[in-house]
Design brief:
Bound molecules: zinc ion
Strand order of the largest sheet: 2-1-4-3
Shape: rod-shaped
Order of helices and strands: HHEEEE
Largest sheet: 4 strands, antiparallel
Strand content: 15-25%
Helix content: 40-55%
Structural class: alpha+beta
Number of strands: 4
Protein backbone atom coordinates (compact mmCIF):
# COMPACT_ATOMS: atom_id res chain seq x y z
CA UNK A 1 0.00 0.00 0.00
CA UNK A 2 1.71 3.14 -1.19
CA UNK A 3 0.21 6.39 -0.02
CA UNK A 4 1.12 9.61 -1.79
CA UNK A 5 1.18 11.63 1.35
CA UNK A 6 2.84 14.96 0.71
CA UNK A 7 3.18 17.28 3.64
CA UNK A 8 2.24 20.78 2.60
CA UNK A 9 4.21 23.78 3.67
CA UNK A 10 2.82 26.48 5.90
CA UNK A 11 0.02 24.32 7.24
CA UNK A 12 -1.01 25.16 10.76
CA UNK A 13 0.30 22.59 13.25
CA UNK A 14 -3.08 22.30 14.95
CA UNK A 15 -4.84 21.42 11.73
CA UNK A 16 -2.06 19.06 10.83
CA UNK A 17 -2.43 17.40 14.25
CA UNK A 18 -6.17 17.01 13.82
CA UNK A 19 -5.70 15.58 10.36
CA UNK A 20 -3.12 13.18 11.65
CA UNK A 21 -5.47 11.96 14.39
CA UNK A 22 -8.31 11.57 11.89
CA UNK A 23 -5.98 9.79 9.53
CA UNK A 24 -4.82 7.40 12.24
CA UNK A 25 -8.41 6.78 13.32
CA UNK A 26 -9.41 5.92 9.79
CA UNK A 27 -6.47 3.56 9.41
CA UNK A 28 -7.42 2.02 12.75
CA UNK A 29 -11.03 1.61 11.56
CA UNK A 30 -9.87 -0.02 8.37
CA UNK A 31 -7.67 -2.32 10.39
CA UNK A 32 -10.57 -3.21 12.70
CA UNK A 33 -12.78 -3.85 9.71
CA UNK A 34 -10.19 -6.06 8.13
CA UNK A 35 -9.78 -7.88 11.41
CA UNK A 36 -13.52 -8.38 11.76
CA UNK A 37 -13.65 -9.70 8.20
CA UNK A 38 -10.94 -12.19 8.97
CA UNK A 39 -12.79 -13.18 12.13
CA UNK A 40 -15.87 -13.96 10.06
CA UNK A 41 -17.87 -10.94 11.17
CA UNK A 42 -18.58 -9.47 7.75
CA UNK A 43 -21.23 -7.07 8.99
CA UNK A 44 -19.19 -5.10 11.48
CA UNK A 45 -16.25 -5.61 9.15
CA UNK A 46 -17.92 -3.64 6.38
CA UNK A 47 -19.15 -1.02 8.84
CA UNK A 48 -15.59 -0.38 10.00
CA UNK A 49 -14.36 -0.43 6.44
CA UNK A 50 -16.89 2.17 5.33
CA UNK A 51 -16.17 4.28 8.39
CA UNK A 52 -12.45 4.10 7.80
CA UNK A 53 -12.70 4.79 4.09
CA UNK A 54 -15.02 7.74 4.65
CA UNK A 55 -12.81 9.30 7.31
CA UNK A 56 -9.77 8.73 5.17
CA UNK A 57 -11.44 10.36 2.18
CA UNK A 58 -12.59 13.29 4.29
CA UNK A 59 -9.22 13.91 5.86
CA UNK A 60 -7.44 13.78 2.53
CA UNK A 61 -10.06 16.09 1.08
CA UNK A 62 -9.52 18.63 3.85
CA UNK A 63 -5.78 18.32 3.46
CA UNK A 64 -6.05 18.82 -0.28
CA UNK A 65 -8.32 21.83 0.10
CA UNK A 66 -6.09 23.44 2.70
CA UNK A 67 -3.08 22.87 0.56
CA UNK A 68 -4.78 24.43 -2.43
CA UNK A 69 -5.72 27.45 -0.35
CA UNK A 70 -2.18 27.78 0.98
CA UNK A 71 -0.77 27.66 -2.53
CA UNK A 72 -3.34 30.14 -3.76
CA UNK A 73 -2.63 32.64 -1.03
CA UNK A 74 1.08 32.27 -1.64
CA UNK A 75 0.59 33.07 -5.28
CA UNK A 76 -1.64 36.01 -4.59
CA UNK A 77 0.93 38.21 -2.95
CA UNK A 78 -0.04 41.74 -3.56
CA UNK A 79 2.53 44.21 -4.80
CA UNK A 80 4.09 46.64 -2.40
CA UNK A 81 4.30 50.23 -3.54
CA UNK A 82 6.69 52.93 -2.50
CA UNK A 83 5.70 56.57 -2.63
CA UNK A 84 8.50 59.07 -3.06
CA UNK A 85 7.84 62.67 -2.20
CA UNK A 86 9.73 65.88 -2.84
CA UNK A 87 9.42 67.99 0.24
CA UNK A 88 10.23 71.17 -1.60
CA UNK A 89 7.79 71.15 -4.49
CA UNK A 90 5.52 68.33 -3.44
CA UNK A 91 6.16 66.14 -6.46
CA UNK A 92 4.99 62.63 -5.84
CA UNK A 93 6.44 59.58 -7.48
CA UNK A 94 5.02 56.09 -7.10
CA UNK A 95 6.99 53.00 -7.95
CA UNK A 96 7.31 49.36 -6.98
CA UNK A 97 8.89 48.59 -3.67
CA UNK A 98 12.55 47.77 -3.90
CA UNK A 99 14.62 45.90 -1.39
CA UNK A 100 16.12 48.33 1.09
CA UNK A 101 13.34 50.89 0.86
CA UNK A 102 12.29 52.49 4.10
CA UNK A 103 10.31 55.52 5.08
CA UNK A 104 12.30 58.81 5.25
CA UNK A 105 15.06 57.34 3.12
CA UNK A 106 16.59 59.75 0.64
CA UNK A 107 16.36 58.26 -2.80
CA UNK A 108 16.66 60.14 -6.00
CA UNK A 109 16.70 63.80 -6.84
CA UNK A 110 13.54 65.55 -7.90
CA UNK A 111 13.24 65.95 -11.68
CA UNK A 112 11.49 69.26 -11.15
CA UNK A 113 13.60 71.11 -8.63
CA UNK A 114 16.62 68.81 -8.28
CA UNK A 115 16.10 68.56 -4.53
CA UNK A 116 16.52 65.23 -2.75
CA UNK A 117 13.36 63.19 -2.70
CA UNK A 118 12.36 61.04 0.22
CA UNK A 119 10.23 57.93 0.63
CA UNK A 120 7.05 59.08 2.28
CA UNK A 121 5.13 55.84 2.45
CA UNK A 122 5.34 52.15 1.71
CA UNK A 123 2.13 50.21 1.42
CA UNK A 124 0.72 47.00 0.14
CA UNK A 125 -1.66 47.52 -2.71
CA UNK A 126 -5.13 46.20 -2.03
CA UNK A 127 -7.01 44.69 -4.94
CA UNK A 128 -9.73 47.29 -4.94
CA UNK A 129 -10.43 50.16 -7.19
CA UNK A 130 -9.18 53.16 -5.33
CA UNK A 131 -9.47 56.74 -6.33
CA UNK A 132 -6.20 58.51 -6.20
CA UNK A 133 -6.92 62.10 -5.41
CA UNK A 134 -4.93 64.44 -7.60
CA UNK A 135 -2.57 66.55 -5.68
CA UNK A 136 -3.34 70.20 -5.92
CA UNK A 137 -0.74 72.89 -5.78
ZN1 LIG B 1 10.86 68.91 -6.15
Amino acid sequence: MSEPFATPKKLSPILLGILLVVFLLSVFSLFLGFDAYLGGDAESGSTYMILGATTLALSSYVLFQTRKRVLKSALKTQPVTTTILCEKCGLKNVRDFKRGDYIFKDVESCPKCNENMMISSIYREVKEKRKIAPRLG
